[in-house]
Design brief:
This protein is mostly helical. Helix content is 81%, strand content 0%. The chain has one domain (3-104): Tetratricopeptide repeat domain (Serine Threonine Protein Phosphatase 5, Tetratricopeptide repeat, Alpha Horseshoe). The chain has 6 helices and no strands. The protein is globular.
Length: 105
């Protein structure tokens, strides 16, 4: 299967609440296409929903590295940092969301 097929199947599994299965499919998509920022983002969200906030932050950070203008990832990473009590880090990410939104207008 292609990276896109694994990515889409991961999305379907995540929608059904099968976060472990979604992570497995995102892993396969990433192994085929390691530059697929959306797969890192979505894998991060699946990890976040499974309360793996450290794992989520790692994935969100990789997605940001690949696509630094992807506004929603900063919001998601900020939420994960907030869950871990890193309020300073969360505020930095939330401020980045505002900065990028201002640049888009």
């Amino acid at each position: 299967m292609s990276a896109e097929a694994y990515f889409n199947r991961g999305n379907a599994k995540a929608e059904l609440g099968d976060y472990k299965g979604a992570v497995a499919d995102y892993n396969k998509a990433i192994s085929i296409n390691p530059k697929l920022a959306e797969a890192y983002n979505n894998r991060g969200t699946a990890k976040f929903m499974s309360c793996d906030y450290f794992g989520a932050i790692g994935d969100y950070s990789k997605a940001i590295e690949l696509n630094p203008k992807y506004v929603e990832i900063y919001r998601s990473r900020g939420a994960a940092k907030e869950k871990l009590g890193d309020l300073k880090g969360a505020i930095e990410d939330y401020n980045k969301v505002e900065e990028l939104n201002r640049k888009e207008k």
